[in-house]
Design brief:
The structure holds 2 protein chains of 2 kinds. Chain A is mainly alpha-helical. Chain A contains 21 helices and 2 strands. Chain A is about 80% helix and about 0% strand. In chain A, helix 4 runs antiparallel to helix 20 and helix 9 runs antiparallel to helix 11. In chain B, helix 9 packs antiparallel against helix 13 and helix 13 packs antiparallel against helix 21. Classes of the chains: A mainly alpha, B mainly alpha. Chains A and B meet through helix 18, helix 19 and helix 21 of A and strand 1, helix 5 and helix 6 of B.
Chain lengths: ~500, ~500
């Protein structure tokens, strides 16, 4: 096969490589070789995602016919700038987290289960990448289930028994969401006889006013909102992120909800188009209100948490609100803000959950009170928390600033003052909840003498944390690449919508 | 768009110093040498490379990175920035000398951390001074806030933690909720954030918008300590004295008023601000801050707290000068940045010297100190007189121009406020040296054994006190810089 041939197959390889590696990881049985395999695969997938981004930028949207069957009969993989950008986020996060996972997991799950863990996380990666690659609505649902089922299992592997309840809760909510999406897709198929997204979009204007299609739209939006954890459908998220193993929290927080937003974008802009989504169904107003409530509720709730991971989880609820607010503007700047925030927040929150993993490894607990004195005993870890926290607040020279800038700009362009005020106000709340932890870690002396002897986290974990945060700071100072890609993705979405 | 390399160097020098300080942490003498050498080099750089270029009418600039499409992170030197950079870099040098005496004499812990963050704070100060657009200004403004937080909370006590909370809360709160909003709004209105002579927004936006933006900018720049956003400044006094001296009398607070002056001159344009209803109201806010700040200063027995409220009051002179928005007002504002800087840093140096030598912090304990520490208290007297605005001290010039500005704008109330402010500053400053020299000493045993602070401290405060006199004799360089901005 020639070089060009491999490049041509990138969209399917992106999905196939982790899918095939998953059972192999299980067959390897022992944790270490499975870890080597999973790390290798995640890096390979990242390289491929970079190749995809490059190709899409040069050649425009890629279309790949699965098994050579021409669409709309066969399944088509369709990769535009948005899809390639999402693949970059998902695989990039996986590539940074995998090296971290070995030491972190050793402390959190039994050794005989670690091969199973790598199998599951590879499957989850497969599902998430599949969602962003595919151009077929039903195929999307299949990949959604692949990623969801594996993530339920991953969450249930958490150290504490509450992990089981959390996983069950997520299972119920996630299944309701997936079912809603399936019903919606079914209704669409009933009306159009096709499942290909491009094909669906073409037929949509004629049937946009029918009740069946509006019902389909409603089902899909609710289902996607559940998977995205958009307020008030976020109830599964805090428990899931709190009790899952740290690696899983980091991976899911940085990727799964982001892919949820991707589905929202894909369905409402590409498939249903602006006419149905924004003119008939007034999705923009609905989303904006929910997004602002999410930002306010999530940030406020985060201020009152006593557990670091739960605090970060509520912060995620708020950050999802920012992203969806950007989407709800349905303007170029707004969409750019939302999409670039997917990237920026993935880095920030991924990094912060990894920090939580370091803390958990060393003191066996992530209760904020117990973190007293960590500024001295784990200087690199806590410095990472400060940097990540500043990113969460959106202080200049962090990636969070870039998102906030675009979001406020988008709100001002529309003349929506209150939105800008809510965004800025909630970022102050972020400063409050971040600083609570900073004060405990740096100003308080440990209550228990046993904590005084705590050492710094292992190098392999610190490297992952700092790589993630260094990238985050880099894209906070020089955001040309990320905002450029986000802008192109946004104009692609609007181009098909308007 | 060239010749900006010295500006990059001005940013890189203190940053390199911070790295050098951390690397040499095991050798305190070497570590302090790193600070001194970089401070010296930085001052030489600003004087030797940047100043002449700007004096000759050049505007050297350099683009660092393209942060947003069409909106780069860039540095550019212009007269007000050069004035600020000259002030900050020179006083960093002096403070470094002082800090060696103070930190060792006072037995402070974590000195490496202290010097390292100090250097980073100076780097961000240079960034603010040479910011080429509002985005760059904002970024360095925030980094300055964050890098001074560990300095404010240096002692790690509960009191320091609480003070740090107020410090960050007020400074981040105002900058995020008002300043950032104003900046992004400006960007959506003008499509640019460049500093344009004559005003970026001039004739582009309605009068009402100008009013709202002006209020957002002036209150958003919390570092200017306009009431009611002044609480962070007295809170920050919990920091070691060199921090209070350089950062909370010069670098940080001047970064605030400097930003206001720069925004009035280059973003709005003085013609737009002059006589605008919003600027009239903001002048009242500044006037209230001048008067109330002075009154509160009179009630404070803790010397550093008194000086802090004096700073709150004096900063509003500069804000007032900027809002008068005529040539004399702007010149007065710029001059007062320098004059107040020299005067107030001297006063803080003296306060620190007294603390190191006698462990006394209260004004009421200072009776008779003049005899034991004549140089320190003498310098205190000179600096007080300069702050009040009496000849032959530099403070006279800035008051002079501010008064001229008020007269030209026919702001008679503001004229009265300026006069009253001077009177009040006499009331809260002069009792201290008078007590020290002529106050009754209750017990002889107490004053015995008290001597001048370590030599580096005395040297530094003598130097800045002498500076107050030199600035009276030769204020011309700073006048020329400011005049270049407003009198073309």
């Amino acid at each position: 096969m020639s070089g060009a041939g491999v490049l041509h197959h990138l969209p399917i390889l992106q999905v196939l490589v982790p899918l095939l590696a998953a059972p192999v990881a299980l067959l390897l049985r022992r944790g270490y070789p499975a870890w080597v395999l999973a790390t290798g695969v995640s890096w390979l997938v990242l390289v491929m995602a970079m190749g995809l981004v490059r190709q899409v930028l040069i050649n425009g949207t890629l279309s790949y016919e699965l098994g050579g069957w021409a669409p709309p009969w066969g399944i088509e993989y369709r990769v535009d700038v948005l899809g390639a950008f999402m693949a970059l986020i998902v695989s990039g996060i996986a590539a940074v987290i995998m090296p971290f996972s070995r030491r972190s997991l050793a402390a959190e799950i039994p050794a005989d289960r670690s091969a199973m863990f790598y199998t599951l996380i590879l499957l989850c990666l497969t599902g998430l990448l599949g969602i962003v690659m595919t151009g077929d609505a039903f195929n999307l649902f299949v990949f959604l289930e692949v990623s969801s089922l594996s993530s339920y299992a991953l969450i249930s592997m958490g150290r504490r028994r509450e992990a089981l309840t959390a996983a069950f809760q997520y299972l119920i909510m996630g299944t309701i969401g997936a079912t809603a999406i399936l019903i919606g897709v079914g209704l669409l198929y009933m009306m159009t006889g096709t499942l290909n997204m491009a094909d669906l979009a073409e037929r949509m204007p004629d049937i946009a006013h029918t009740r069946t299609v509006t019902a389909a739209f409603a089902f899909i939006v609710v289902g996607v909102a559940l998977k995205t954890a958009l307020f008030p459908l976020h109830l599964w998220l805090p428990n899931a992120y709190t009790y899952a193993p740290s690696v899983v929290s980091a991976f899911l927080a940085a990727t799964a909800t982001k892919v949820g937003v991707y589905m929202l974008l894909r369905f409402s802009f590409t498939i249903f188009g602006g006419l149905l989504a924004f003119e008939i169904m007034n999705l923009d107003r609905l989303l904006l209100v929910l997004a602002l409530l999410a930002a306010l509720y999530g940030s406020t709730a985060a201020v009152f948490q006593t557990d670091l991971k739960r605090m970060l989880a509520y912060s995620s609820v708020a950050q999802i609100g920012y992203t969806v607010a950007g989407v709800s503007f349905a303007s170029l700047t707004g969409l750019t803000a939302g999409i670039v925030h997917l990237f920026n927040h993935a880095l920030v929150k991924g990094g912060l959950f990894l920090v939580a993993g370091c803390v958990l490894l060393r003191i066996g607990n992530v209760t904020i009170e117990r973190m007293a004195g960590l500024g001295r005993t784990m200087p690199w870890t806590m410095a990472a928390f400060v940097v990540g926290g500043l990113g969460l607040v959106g202080v200049p020279a962090t990636a969070g600033f870039i998102s906030k800038w675009y979001l406020v700009q988008a709100a001002l362009e529309r003349g929506w003052w209150p939105v800008a005020v809510v965004v800025l106000f909630t970022s102050l709340l972020a400063a409050v909840y971040v600083w609570r932890v900073v004060e405990v870690a740096y100003f308080r002396t440990p209550a228990q003498t046993s904590d005084a002897g705590v050492g710094e986290a292992p190098l392999s974990m610190l490297v992952s944390v700092w790589v993630m945060l260094a990238i985050m700071v880099y894209f906070g100072i020089n955001a040309s690449l990320t905002t450029g890609l986000a802008r192109q993705a946004a104009s692609g979405l609007l181009g098909t919508a308007l | 768009m060239s010749g900006g390399f010295p500006l990059l160097l001005a940013l890189a020098l203190p940053l390199t110093a911070a790295v050098g300080i951390v690397l040499t942490r095991r050798h305190p003498d070497l570590r302090e040498a790193v600070t001194l050498v970089s401070a010296g080099l930085l001052f030489a750089l600003v004087v030797g490379a940047v100043w002449p270029a700007v004096e000759a009418g050049g505007r050297p600039s350099i683009v660092l990175v393209q942060t947003f499409p069409g909106l780069p992170l860039m540095l550019q030197a212009e007269p007000i920035g050069v004035l600020f950079a000259l002030l900050a870099s020179f006083l960093w040098l002096v403070t470094s000398v002082y800090a060696i005496g103070y930190m060792r004499g006072h037995g402070e812990k974590n000195q490496t951390r202290f010097y390292a963050y100090f250097a980073i704070a100076l780097a961000s100060t240079m960034g603010v001074a040479f910011a080429g657009n509002l985005l760059t200004l904002f970024i360095f403004y925030e980094i300055l806030t964050l890098s001074t937080y560990p300095l404010v909370t240096h002692s790690g006590t509960d009191e320091a933690r609480r003070a740090g909370r107020i410090y960050l809360g007020v400074l981040l709160g105002t900058s995020i909720s008002f300043l950032l909003l104003a900046i992004i709004w400006t960007w959506t209105l003008a499509g640019s954030l460049d500093f344009v002579p004559g005003g970026l927004l001039r004739d582009k936006v309605s009068s009402a918008t100008v009013g709202i933006l002006l209020v957002l900018f002036v209150f958003g720049i919390g570092k200017a300590a306009l009431m009611p956003f002044h609480r962070w400044l007295p809170a920050a006094m919990v920091a070691p004295t060199p921090v209070s001296a350089l950062l909370h009398a010069v670098a940080v607070v001047k970064a605030g008023v400097f930003s206001i002056v720069k925004i009035v001159v280059y973003i709005f344009g003085i013609d737009t601000v002059a006589g605008h209803a919003a600027s009239q109201w903001l002048m009242y806010a500044a006037a209230i801050t001048i008067i109330v700040g002075s009154l509160v200063a009179m009630t404070r027995d803790n010397l550093k707290a008194r000086l802090a409220y004096s700073t709150v009051s004096q900063l509003s002179y500069i804000v007032l000068g900027a809002l008068l928005a005529n040539a004399w007002g702007i010149i007065g504002a710029g001059m007062h940045m320098v004059m107040h800087g020299f005067g107030k840093i001297t006063l803080f140096f003296c306060a620190g010297a007294i603390l190191v030598a006698t462990h006394k912090t209260k004004v009421s304990q200072m009776n008779g100190l003049g005899r034991a520490m004549p140089i320190t208290m003498g310098a205190f007297l000179l600096a007080s007189l300069s702050l009040i605005g009496l000849p032959p001290f530099g403070g006279m010039w800035s008051k002079w121009y501010l008064v001229s500005g008020a007269l030209e704008a026919q702001q008679l109330i503001m004229l009265g406020v300026l006069m009253l402010g001077s009177l009040l500053s006499t009331a809260y400053l002069l009792p201290i040296p008078l007590r020290a020299f002529f106050g009754r000493v209750e017990k002889h045993s107490q004053a015995e054994g008290i001597r001048e602070a370590p030599i580096p401290c005395v040297l530094a405060l003598g130097l800045t006190a002498a500076g107050c006199v030199v600035l009276f004799l030769n204020p011309d360089p700073f006048y020329r810089l400011m005049a270049q901005v407003v009198l073309q």
